């Protein structure tokens, strides 16, 4: 009897095919968000109107963020997180994305609320601690950012991203020795990481070690794709070094 019930509950070939088609459509939509966000939004909106459900709504929100409407994107993502039928991990990451959108709008309290709720739901996810840390750093709450990144590293001690971001936060707190320790650890794990190399060069420059700064930035240029945003920051810092002017900070 139980076997028969389980067999009856299995999805039909048509249902499996429909799920596969939806997954492919969602992946295509999210890719289009990066290259043609207006087209992605229009396609996702039409898809949602025809019953596209959560995938369509999520893609539409992502497109709105890319188009420069962070408040509307955040509102939609929070609504989606409240109504999703997916598991807690998915809901938590939707809230984190909403927090990122609120941060783009410089709505720091709303960003913190969304990302704190995400962490309440999934406190074991290192990337969620990193997400809130980025928001706190952008809001210039560097001490709180350090706290979040320390929590992230408890969960993922080999996270080069967390080590690099914590080094940046330490730098803003004038704790250059602590920043140096984190960067040494990050570069031991990933010597060619462009973000870690950029930050390492900035700290070396502030520590009065221009030759080491220049070496780090050259390594960053070798490692980063030519069209990556970080390349502009690295080149500008090299120019400032040659001019004897202070470095510019890495982007949070």
From TrEMBL:
Keyword Nucleotide-binding: no
InterPro entries assigned to the protein according to its UniProt record, in alphabetical order: TPR-like_helical_dom_sf, TPR_rpt, Ycf3
TPR repeats: 126-159, 160-193
Pfam families, per the entry: TPR_16
UniProt xrefs under PROSITE patterns: TPR
Keywords annotated in UniProt: Repeat, TPR repeat
Name the UniProt record assigns to this protein: FOG: TPR repeat
Taxonomic lineage of the native organism: Bacteria, Pseudomonadati, Pseudomonadota, Alphaproteobacteria, environmental samples
């Amino acid at each position: 009897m139980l076997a028969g019930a389980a067999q009856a509950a299995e999805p039909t070939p048509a249902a499996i095919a429909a799920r596969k088609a939806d997954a492919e459509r969602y992946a295509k939509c999210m890719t289009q968000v990066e290259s043609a966000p207006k087209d992605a939004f229009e396609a996702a909106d039409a898809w949602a109107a025809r019953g596209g459900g959560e995938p369509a709504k999520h893609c539409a929100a992502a497109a709105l963020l890319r188009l420069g409407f962070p408040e509307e994107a955040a509102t939609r993502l929070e609504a989606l997180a409240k109504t999703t039928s997916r598991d807690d991990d998915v809901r938590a990451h939707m809230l984190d994305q909403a927090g990122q959108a609120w941060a783009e709008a410089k709505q720091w309290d709303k960003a913190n609320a969304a990302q704190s709720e995400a962490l309440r739901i999934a406190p074991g996810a290192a990337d969620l601690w990193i997400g809130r840390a980025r928001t706190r750093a952008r809001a210039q709450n560097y001490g709180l950012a350090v706290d979040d990144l320390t929590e992230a590293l408890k969960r993922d001690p080999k996270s080069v991203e967390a080590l690099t971001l914590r080094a940046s936060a330490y730098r803003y707190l004038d704790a250059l020795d602590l920043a140096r320790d984190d960067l040494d650890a990050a570069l031991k794990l990933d010597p060619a990481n462009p973000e870690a190399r950029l930050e390492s060069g900035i700290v070396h420059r502030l520590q009065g070690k221009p030759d080491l700064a220049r070496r780090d930035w050259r390594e960053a240029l070798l490692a980063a794709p030519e069209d990556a945003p970080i390349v502009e920051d690295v080149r500008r810092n090299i120019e400032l070094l040659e001019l004897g002017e202070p470095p510019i900070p890495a982007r949070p």
